[in-house]
Amino acid sequence: MSAFTLADYVVCGMMLSISAMIGVYFACTGGRQRSQAEYLLADRSMGSLPVAFSLLASFMSAITLLGVSAENYRFGTQFVLINVSYAIATPIAAYCYLPVFYRLSEYSVYQYLECRFGVLTRVLCSLAFSVQMVLYMGIVLYAPAIALSTVTGISLWLSVLLVGLVCTFYSTLGGMKAVLVTDVFQTLLMFAAIFAVIAVGCVKMGGPAEVWRIADDGGRIQFFNFSPDPTERHTVWSLAVGGIFIYLSLYAVNQAQVQRLLTIGRLRRSQLALWLQWPILTLLSLSTSFAGLVIYAFYHGCDPFLAGKVQLPDQLLPRFVMDTMRDIPGLPGLFVAGIFSGSLSTVSSAVNSLAAVTVHDYVRMVPCWSQQPEEWELPLTKLLSLGYGLLCLAVSYVVSKLGKSVLTASLTIFGAVGGPLLGVFTLGMAVPCANQRGAVTGLLLGLALTLWIGFAPKPAPVALPVSSDLCYNGTHVAGVVVPDYEGIDDGTDDNTTAVLLGTASPLQASEKYFYLYRISYMWISMIGFAVTCAAGGLASLVGPRDPAVPHSLLSPPVAWLLRRWGSQEPSPSRAKLNSDAPTVELELFEAKTRL
């Protein structure tokens, strides 16, 4: 049943129009996107605050906003403790990983892997990144659209096409500057949408204290599960420790995030951007979690699943909006604009980063293209941005036709890749004796294990109890088969991407499942990281040892320890970093070392 009014469509149209005009503005001002440095790195002229908002917008997709609220509705507030991991991981990303990328000052983070290990490591890791981001683009565009369309009545494919085309338009025309500025605008819309839900819900329920009381009575307030059992879905340990590795895989070594951090001219200001995004991210996370409690308080006596109002967890938040805000012109439109802003910001970051990786990790490595002047790179990069934007529409269409199995497989691949990639970069920056033999071995073993666990069958989710005792006026579906709430499928298997998407199924212990399949999805990224590092370190010790690694390619704490232990910096003339890496011109090596 459509409840969208003209005012709602106007609000959504204004959001899309402003985003598109920002792209036009940056295409016509400044350097007019005539150089690679401006198009991919915004001339390294951005400030810390807009980059901080952009980092948040890339991390918090539309599915996250829908999923985190549903998480707190169905399973309680234990998930909120993942914010502890953000506090721990932020300084690690800022001071252990980011300075290394700043020294190299390259467009692609995977060029570091070539300097440290060799071409094979670089190509394998960049391919893994490309596959996960292409799949994720289509999903993050389609999944919220299907959830919104079934509840609000807005056209599914019209919304997918508009969001996808507008995102492609401003990303292609305006480059990284347009992406960053629109991310700020879209982040504010996301906050506005969530705050509107909280405000309206609290007014209807009699205030935040009443919301909290109802949630507490319903068993939703949970914070202190200290169980050491790794098969329990959410505990203090899985969220605070396992969340660290998920955060680092996204903020420390992910091309989309590091590329944003490199748009700032100075390292300290870039580190400040990481520190600034942490409280903003925490605020949005806590707000979205409280919105889930507001929804529970509103429906605590008439669960929308039991009443037949929704079929998927991601539909809970839009259902609440249409039940409480439909009489306020423009407010449902503001909510939908905020949700689609999450899709726009995430897809635009993927489009820009994939174009950079394709040009610098694939095209430039082809012998005939490597001889071409750099002037040819910019039009190719813009063309690739356009191509990737259209590709996300194609992936959305494929997901809609081939069904849930493709969605599950795509999210599993995305989640399983993060831990092993983090492990490879950590081997390079923290283990001086690691070489390409170890890096490739560790990557392949880590990916094999995480993908095996990710694609394996999982125990069914078991949500907290709900009630339909207060359903009335025809909303109680007497005589209709009530869906099995404990077995509702949210469209994903348990994997690390669930933290991004907020749609993770719980892992309940069941003897009929192999033990590894019962381990909480929060540990999968750490398992991939640990296997990659352990196998990579051992494989590096087998066979001939490589030459010493320049300290500039090591994490600052590791380089400091080596100097304290009397290890000498290799001579710049020894530009051959290891037996697998290519020879680098002396002048280029010295220049990057000084940087």
Order of helices and strands: HHHHHHHHHHHHHHHHHHHHHHH
Secondary-structure content class:
mainly alpha
Low-confidence stretches: 474-509, 572-595
Helix content: 55-70%
Terminal Cα span? 60 Å
Oligomer: single chain
The major pleated sheet works out as: none
Rough shape? globular
CATH top level is: Mainly Alpha
Q: Beta-strand percentage? A: under 5%
User: Into how many domains do the coordinates divide?
Assistant: 1
Examine the secondary-structure arrangement and name the CATH architecture: Up-down Bundle
The beta-strand count equals 0
CATH domain topology: Sodium/glucose cotransporter
Number of helical elements:
23
CATH superfamily name?
A: Sodium/glucose cotransporter
Tell me the radius of gyration: 24 Å
Mean pLDDT level: 82
What does this entry look like structurally?
The protein has helices at residues 6-28, 36-41, 48-59, 62-75, 82-104, 110-116, 119-152, 156-205, 208-217, 236-251, 255-261, 267-299, 316-325, 331-362, 367-370, 377-402, 404-430, 436-455, 497-501, 515-518, 524-541, 556-564, 586-594. By secondary structure, it is mainly alpha-helical. The longest helix is centred in the first third of the chain and has 50 residues, at 156-205. It has a single domain, classed as Sodium/glucose cotransporter.
Short description:
The protein has a single domain, classed as Sodium/glucose cotransporter (Up-down Bundle), CATH 1.20.1730. It is mainly α and 595 residues long.
